[in-house]
Amino acid sequence: MIAAMVLFALLALPAFARQDAEQQRIAYLIDSVATLQGATFIRNGTGYDATQAADHMRLKLRFAGSRVKTAEDFITYCATGSSMSGIKYTIRFQDGRVVDSAAFLLSKLADYAKVHDGQAPNPPVH
């Protein structure tokens, strides 16, 4: 009985580690949004600051529940566009450039992977 419990625990560890790694990747993406200086997040035609945008993504993450298993799921379900109107979220940077939030977050996710693989990240998109 004890041996079976130990074996189960050892087999479950990789799954827990993957979940934790995905939670860290998602937290990194939200933090990347929250710390953008001077950016305006456009959601359904209305501009929001970085803190409000990050708070909205956290709220959508809570509502998404078990549908979000990976950082890519987070981008798809919580950070790409409005589930009500279908309108894509965009980010307007201080210099006037506008990018889809999905493109920005995918770029940040690539930076995260490079850092965790021991490579230098790309220059920031903003």
UniProtKB/TrEMBL annotation:
Keyword Signal carried by entry: yes
Cited InterPro entries: DUF5329
Keywords: Signal
One Pfam short name: DUF5329
Signal peptide range: 1-17
Protein known as: DUF5329 family protein
